[in-house]
Amino acid sequence: MSNVEQEADNSKRKSEESDVVLKNQQMVRVQQMATVEWIQQKRKSKIQQMICEVGDCKTMSLE
User: Fold this and answer.
1) Where is region (Disordered) located (predicted)?
2) Measured distance CA(10)–CA(1) in Å, rounded
3) How many beta carbons lie within 10 A of that of residue 55, not counting itself?
């Protein structure tokens, strides 16, 4: 294999490796965003639950 062919092969391999790394980074980022969204939904749900509980307590104490 000539130097030119070897360099072309190395360049192609590095490009493919870079593509794989980029795809992995993108998948990690998507997973992070999904996790953040899930946490935010859980917090919102917990806050709503607490508000309802406080509301029920106030209603009960007023009766």
Assistant:
1) 1-20
2) 12
3) 10
Q: Can you tell me the distance from the alpha carbon of 58 to that of 47, in angstroms, rounded to the nearest whole number?
A: 16
Interatomic CA distance for residues 43 and 18, integer angstroms? 37
Distance CA 63, CA 57 (A): 10
Task: Report yes or no on whether pTM surpasses 0.90.
Answer: no
| AA identity, residue 23 | K
2-21: per-residue pLDDT in tens? 999 999 999 999 999 999 99
pLDDT in tens, 17-58: 999 999 999 999 999 999 999 999 999 988 888 888 777 655
Q: What radius of gyration do the chain's Cα atoms show? A: 27
Distance of CA 12 to the CA centre of its chain: 30
